[in-house]
Design goal:
This protein is about 70% helix and about 0% strand. With about 240 residues, the protein is an all-alpha fold. α1 runs antiparallel to α10 (about 210-230) and α7 crosses α8 (about 170-185). The longest helix has about 30 residues, at about 1-35. The radius of gyration is 22 Å and the shape is globular. About 20% of the residues are buried.
Length: about 240
């Protein structure tokens, strides 16, 4: 009996080690596929062919930015084994890279408008001018306040007492903030979209080569995630009939 239990535990440990290695390989592929710096995007889609003016008009640059946002990471949240902090950091870095790349290829008027918009918004919120957007710490503080505010509002709507506000522990609060960062990293400003996107999403003219390439790579990354999640499914591990 003891030998049987020992063999079962060895089998369980080996299965989990195999899963962990598969998981690490999958996440490595994800990091390699998802562009988190502007140099990678230049290698994938090319550099600005008009250094003085920019080689994309405002609408094409905006559509390129939409395509490059890391929405694929939202699929990964369904796999509870993947840490939310890792996904949130990847999404934040990918968004910054997408913004910088689309902006450097946009024509000068659109580029200057975007930089002035970001700079003024940052100055209004934090007292200093920054055309690159919020830092990681600023993003964390913003969504920490937002998540806590939403939690309090939810408690009030449910007519719960003040003592219930402490029900959510620090770990759960942190997880909610990471998920909020991940979600917002895949969103765009609707006002700016209305200014620059003349066509509806279903009627966009995708004749521009750079947008077509971006859409193709975006689909390839989606396929990579789907395959990686399928391979790293722990269902078989969790349903092993082992008596401890």
């Amino acid at each position: 009996m003891n030998n049987l239990l020992y063999d079962q535990r060895l089998m369980m440990d080996e299965t989990r080690r195999s899963y962990s290695e598969e998981y690490r390989r999958g996440m490595l592929k994800l990091r390699e596929a998802l562009a988190t710096d502007v140099r990678t995007l230049r290698d994938q889609f090319g550099e600005n062919r008009n250094k003085l003016w920019g080689d994309l008009d405002n609408e094409t640059a905006r559509r390129l930015y939409h395509t490059l946002l890391p929405r694929v990471l939202l699929k990964v949240t369904s796999n509870s084994e993947i840490r939310e902090d890792e996904l949130a950091h990847l999404a934040y870095q990918a968004r910054l890279a997408a913004k910088q790349y689309a902006r450097e290829r946009c024509n000068v008027p659109g580029r200057m408008f975007a930089m002035a918009f970001d700079g003024f918004r940052h100055w209004k919120a934090y007292g200093n001018w920054s055309t690159k957007g919020m830092t990681w710490d600023e993003v964390w503080e913003k969504y920490e306040r937002e998540v806590i505010s939403n939690m309090k509002a939810s408690r009030e709507q449910q007519s719960l007492t003040a003592s219930h506000l402490s029900d959510v522990n620090e770990e759960d609060l942190t997880r909610r903030i990471y998920l909020r960062i991940l979600e917002r990293s895949c969103k765009t400003n609707p006002t700016i979209d209305q200014m620059f996107l003349k066509s509806s999403e279903g009627e966009e003219n995708s004749s521009d080569d750079v947008v077509l390439v971006a859409q193709q790579i975006d689909q390839e990354i989606h396929d990579l995630i789907e395959n990686s999640l399928a391979k790293t499914n722990l269902g078989d591990v969790n349903t092993l009939n082992i008596q401890w």
